[in-house]
Amino acid sequence: MRRTTFHRAALATATLLLLAGCGSQSGGDGKGSGAVSPSPTASSPGTSASPSPSASGSSGGCTPLTSELTAADSGRTYCLAADGTFRITLTGTEQRPWKKIAEAGDTGALKPMNYGIMLRGGDAGAAYQAVAAGTVTLTSTRPLCAEPTAPGQVSCKGIQEWHVTVKVG
Hints:
By secondary structure, the chain is α/β, with parallel strands linked by helices.
């Protein structure tokens, strides 16, 4: 009886660890680069060098938007002057693709522009120009785990969300 209890406890522990590992997967290329939940103060090559919202000291709790947003900028609020432009590049994989970037709020405040480059499979990108005052929320999602390719592989239903708020004015 004691041996059966030990095996059940070990099986339950292994299952929990396996499921927790799925939620902590990293990266855009499936090899461990990039983080699922990036640090808001981290900056990597090709990302915006804008300070974090708490460190910016700008009025209204927003960071001045310079030129490009990436997955590391999720959750932040940015300010953009009229006629300002910016690009968004979300790097994904074919197994974990980003969905098309969606707009909500005062959608007339931003005018979509030509992104200018071709994206790889799994990536999402957009370019905008500020044309009117307003607040727009931009969002995208992608799966945390790749879909299983063979029977018996582990899968998860987790979703990585990306969102930023842009205040034009």
